[in-house]
Each structure stands twice: as structure tokens, then as C-alpha cells.
Design brief:
The chain is built from eleven helices and 17 strands. By secondary structure, the protein is α+β, with helices and mostly antiparallel strands. α6 packs across α7, α8 packs antiparallel against α11 and α9 packs across α10.
């Protein structure tokens, strides 16, 4: 188990107590996505918190450290703040400030380090008060380049917008910098109604959080620079308007007359332009043709992703590529082209699994 003691004097790194009781200095840019590690023998316990953070209070960091079996070396000073609240089933939940920072200042890797600088969110965006209502304009090219793309209904700029529109969130980020200037890891709790997933170790009726994910929050009108309440969705699964995940069931797969699914050279000349979509900052790692052949085999046979014979391709390569192509409509275009090319072959509907049973329908064109 590792524990972040505080911030170095030059605010460029965080002092981390390692399992062998040695202190390491890790750059803030590197620690942005690291988590306080739970011992391997401990199964993480999940707590879903919904409500205002006003019910949270400061906890004794020593209680957290004792619960996680961490003993500070003699003369070692802890400068890391810990919160606590009473959750369901009368569980006392302890939340380190660093876990909340990693939840709030995400997902762009540049946003977390910005909390330890004076300019904070102003490094990347500004509020345009000439618009009605005022809107947040992201004007930093480096931030835009590092923003994750391609996630279904993801809202990568929402954390940055929240930090500009919420007065208390903006102050919280600035106060992180002020506390870091004298070596402390502290985070004033912003206003609003939050939905946060917390994971950690459960010991008796206490939970010691090691990781947090901000799912959604509502800025109250009195805390918003726009003067109006606004709900912000940070995680796509919490968005009621999100598109359903791409399903591998019920897709009609055109086959060759001999029942084969792989594409021919002539077919690939027609299909390759469809799948060759340029994305800024992304380059193809695997052969699109190999990916397509593997996906067609899975859909036409009904075997699991893990059993698809695809040399050099991981299961996640296949499943994520399928979901992206299906969500973006590329797979539908490919199947339409194959249907025209294979008009004399069978048309097989992909398998839909229900429980431990599999149902497959097929028909001839």
C-alpha cells in the first residue's frame, strides 16, 4: 500500500510513502492517473454516493492509515487531508483528498497538474460572457489534442466547463494550489448535488476509499456564473440520452456462396475507403482487413470474442473495433457493400445469446 504524504516544496512532485517505508518523489504529471493502491489481498468494496458534500467532514488521517495498515516512519509528517461521511448501512466512509482530486480533475491528463498551478483552469479555457447564457470556450490546442475522443456519448470537456461555471469548484481548484504551495494535499468541497462511485477496502463497518469516479453533478443556480442550475454528465453511462451499446446480436451477415465470411481482394478495394477514417492523433496499429475478417467470423458463427482465431489481435482489439464501427455506422456501410457483392450467397443473422442458450436464424436471399 502506498500513501501520498503531501506536495514537494517546489510543487512539481508528490511525496509518496512506498510499501518499504521509503519516500519517493513522483512528478504530478505522472501521478494524475495513479491510484492509492489497495493491498492485493483486499477485495475492493464499492460505495455509490448521491447527494451534497455538505454532510462530509474532515477525518483523522491517522484513522485512515491505521485502517489500511500503514504506519508512518518516525518523524514523517502527513500533510494529506481525509474526509469521512456516514453511508448506507451505517458504514463510515473515509475519502482521501487525492482520490477526489483524481476524480474531479479528469479525464484530460493536463487538467490534474493544472490544479497545482496558479492559473488553474484558465490555462485551457475562458468564459465567453458575450453569449447568452455564458459559455465555456476551450482555446488551448494542447488540451484539445490530449482530450480523449471516440468514447460513446463521452463528455471530455465537462470537467473543464464545470470548473469555469461553478464558483465553488473554481475556488476549490485554486485552493488546491494554495495548499500545495506549503506542501499540503487539501481540497475544499464544492457545492452541488453529486453522484460519485467510490472504491476501497472495507474493514468492519468502515470503508477506506482508494479510488473515486465522478459520474454526474448539478450546479445550483446560486453557485453558477450563468445564474441557472445545470446538470453535468461526466460518465456516458449516467446520460439518459446516451445511445445503447452496440450489440452483436441480430446483425445480418452476408456470406459467400460457400458459406465463407472473409472478404476477397476485390471486396476489400470497395470496403477499404469506408474503414479508412482519419483521426487526429491516432494511427492504425492493426490491419483493418484482419479486424474485419475476424469480426465477420464472430458475427456469422456466434462464437465468443475470446475464441475468434485472429493472429496478433487481442479480444479487446476486436470487441472495441466492432463497437466503434457499429456506433459510427461504418459496419452498416460495409455490410451493405458485401450484400451487393454476395447477392447469391446466404444471409445469416448473427447469434443472440439468452442465458446459456443461443438462437440463430438464417435465410436465403
Amino acid at each position: 500500500m502506498e500513501w501520498a504524504l503531501g506536495v514537494s516544496l517546489n510543487t512539481s512532485s508528490i511525496e509518496v510513502l512506498t510499501s518499504n517505508e521509503g519516500i519517493e518523489h513522483r512528478r504530478i504529471e505522472e501521478i494524475a492517473s495513479e491510484r492509492l493502491k489497495v493491498p492485493r489481498t483486499t477485495k475492493p468494496y464499492r460505495v455509490l454516493y448521491e447527494g451534497s458534500l455538505s454532510s462530509w467532514s474532515l477525518s483523522d488521517p491517522g484513522e485512515y492509515l491505521a485502517g489500511m495498515g500503514i504506519e508512518l516512519p518516525e518523524g514523517c509528517l502527513n500533510r494529506h487531508e481525509v474526509f469521512k461521511f456516514i453511508g448506507n448501512d451505517d458504514l463510515t466512509v473515509h475519502v482521501p483528498a487525492l482520490a477526489l482530486m483524481q476524480a474531479f480533475f479528469k479525464p484530460n491528463p493536463l487538467l490534474f497538474p493544472a490544479a497545482f498551478r496558479m492559473a488553474g483552469p484558465d490555462l485551457f479555457a475562458f468564459v465567453d460572457y458575450g453569449q447568452t447564457p455564458p459559455t465555456v470556450v476551450v482555446d488551448d490546442l494542447a488540451y484539445i489534442r490530449h482530450t480523449p475522443r471516440g468514447r460513446e456519448n463521452a463528455a471530455p470537456n465537462k470537467p473543464l466547463e464545470w470548473l469555469h461555471l461553478s464558483k465553488s469548484a473554481r475556488k476549490a481548484m485554486h485552493d488546491v494550489y494554495l495548499a500545495a504551495s506549503y506542501g499540503a494535499l487539501r481540497l475544499p468541497l464544492p457545492f452541488g448535488e453529486f453522484r460519485i462511485a467510490l472504491h476501497g477496502a472495507r474493514v468492519g463497518n468502515q470503508v477506506f476509499v482508494t479510488a473515486a469516479t465522478l459520474i454526474a453533478m448539478t450546479i445550483p443556480a446560486e453557485d453558477s456564473v450563468t445564474g441557472a442550475s445545470e446538470t453535468m454528465i461526466f460518465h456516458s453511462m449516467a446520460d439518459p440520452q446516451r445511445k445503447a451499446k452496440a450489440s452483436a446480436g441480430g446483425i445480418k451477415i452476408p456470406l459467400h456462396s460457400d458459406g465463407a465470411s472473409s472478404v476477397t481482394d476485390d471486396e476489400w478495394q470497395l470496403i477499404e475507403p469506408i474503414l479508412t477514417v482519419k483521426r487526429r492523433g491516432h494511427s492504425a496499429i492493426h490491419s483493418r482487413r484482419d479486424l474485419l475478417d475476424a469480426i465477420l467470423l464472430k458475427l456469422s458463427s456466434g462464437i465468443s470474442w475470446a475464441k475468434v482465431p485472429a493472429r496478433g489481435l487481442k479480444t479487446t482489439d476486436l470487441s472495441w473495433t466492432f463497437r466503434r464501427w457499429k456506433t459510427e455506422g461504418l459496419l452498416d456501410q460495409v455490410l451493405k457493400a458485401l450484400s451487393a457483392s454476395r447477392s447469391n450467397g446466404p444471409l445469416v443473422e448473427s447469434i443472440t445469446r439468452i442465458g446459456n442458450k443461443a438462437v440463430m436464424a438464417s435465410e436465403k436471399t
